[in-house]
Amino acid sequence: MESILTSWLWKLLAWLPGFLLGLVFTPSRYAKLIKIDLRPRHDPVTLNFGEIPYVTIYLQVTNRSPFTVELDRLHLELTYGSGLANLYYLERTKIKSGSTTDFFVRNELSDAFAVNGSKHIENNRCTLDVKAEFNSRISSFGVRTGQLEGINPRVVNVRKNVS
Known about the structure:
By secondary structure, the protein is an alpha+beta fold. The chain has helices at residues 2-14, 18-24, 27-32, 111-118, and strands at residues 34-38, 45-48, 54-63, 69-80, 83-89, 93-95, 100-108, 126-135, 140-151, 154-156. Strands 1, 2, 3, 7 and 10 form a 5-stranded mixed beta sheet that branches. Strands 4, 5, 6, 8 and 9 form a 5-stranded antiparallel beta sheet that branches.
């Protein structure tokens, strides 16, 4: 019964004008209704230290708000060893209310990051900080995950004899 009432309430809210909804759905409240995390299965993070080094990251964004939102852009900061890589996803994507959408981020890494990373594979941990910007019919807002820790990336093409 409660879920039917909640569903009815969300549908009623959707019909209200945007300026009234903006009083209830402030950017900070909106941000609390969006969840960003790594994909739970397979290899969510892969570091390739080959001739042209790159990283692949699979993220999931869950929209728990009653409205469709649009992901405007993602900025990811990946730390591995003592290296830091700034990664970007700039494709606008709509995410319906109550749905989860997967995002595949692939960016090149610097040669220095690959050399440094090849020295730190014994402690195979990395952290990821995600900053996302969203648009909706009510307002624009940002979501920041803070540091996602305990990530064991899959590392391939490790460089040998690096000093």
